[in-house]
Task: structure prediction
Amino acid sequence: MGEVASGRTASGVPGTPLLSARGLWVSYRGGSGVRGTSQEPVLKGVDLDLERGAALGLVGESGSGKTTLLLSLLGFLPLDQGTIQLDGERMPAGTRPRRSREQRRRIQPVFQSALESLNPRLKVGSALTEPPRVHGIDPNAMGASRLEELPTALLELVGLDGSLAGRYPRELSGGERQRVAIARAISVRPEALLLDEPVSALDLSVQAGVLELLAQLRRELGMAILFVSHDLAVVEEVCDRVHVFHQGQIVESGSPGRILSNPGHLATERLVEAIPRVP
Result:
């Protein structure tokens, strides 16, 4: 396998965050259709910056709104108020108007359940070649001389054997499927991965391997990472900085070490207390 190209030059204005959000308010609506009654807002004026190459953790209890924030940043949910920018350029929110193909390429998601996010009718090799083919990605950028060789190169990059390209997702273990989902996300050379609880459904030993992989890919490919989780200990393994989310707002920010050793908000204290400890 050839070496993966790295060290891309940032295309945005110097000093501008790769991805930023300002004053995000999001609420779901009850009843039928868009004219249904608006419920209590899930996001309440959220501001967030993801710098190039950074690893930012977003932690909170179930129902705090952290996944809603991630889906909003991806453009999957409409905003009640606020703006989202990529390299200082405003991005559409919600399904209409749609984001450009290039905007979607630069920000790629990885979800909790790879079995649900991967097409069960496609073999792994087809799942890995379709995104770069659609986006016109040069296979050499991912260590392959031809598109047909790309699945093997990507699988090896995420620590899997190239022979898995001929299997269906259901034939893989949970850890293997999540690595395939990560390989599919990086196949289009994104500048950021937005990950929603990517290891919460995995065994502890498998979790450790996937977290190590993410740290490795961040170093080698220069990607930024937004890592959503309910587990502060997991976020500490990957992230440089942490935002604590509670009731639709960021209530505390800091380094993982500072957050763990000196929590300043009741919601943070509960997250720290929930970390399993060996007697």
